[in-house]
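During data preparation, a discrete fold description was generated, and the record follows.
___
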Amino acid sequence: MSSQLYKVTVNESTYSIVIHQDHLEVDGEPWDWDLVSIDNSQFHLISDHGSYHILIDEYDSESKQVQIKLNGNPFLAQVKDRYDILLEKLGMNQANNQSHQEIKAPMPGKILEIKVKVGQEVKKGDQLIVLEAMKMENIIKAAGDGVVQNIFVESGINVEKNQVLIQF
């Protein structure tokens, strides 16, 4: 098993966590701990001479957020794996954070296909454009519901990062 990298944000503090086969590192420092599963949503953690009860209240796989209770105190954590971190570095996570008014190219590339037409109603998650970048096809999806007002590109053209593709 190779190491696994995660970035975890809890209450506006972000931690880099690397899970190795035989140990765990938090922000580059080894972390001594013992975790026992009680059931699918409850765990017992011993760390730094302390004992903690962890209850997983809710997990949203789409947003990768988990609501937990640590010794009865609620916390909201956002977990990003190595793929989420890579997409963030490439600027592709901006599609989820941008305004619903404009869809911009998350990276330079070539427009392979436009899947919508002016006047078409789209729902959040609908496929809008296929963008080829770094020899990979990337599907650009609608960040929210709306009606396509303008399409500023056509199949076969090259676009730059942050170039406006579609306007709602």
Residues 91-167 form a domain with the OB fold (Dihydrolipoamide Acetyltransferase, E2P) fold (CATH 2.40.50.100). The first strand starts at residue 4 and ends at 10. The mean pLDDT is 87.
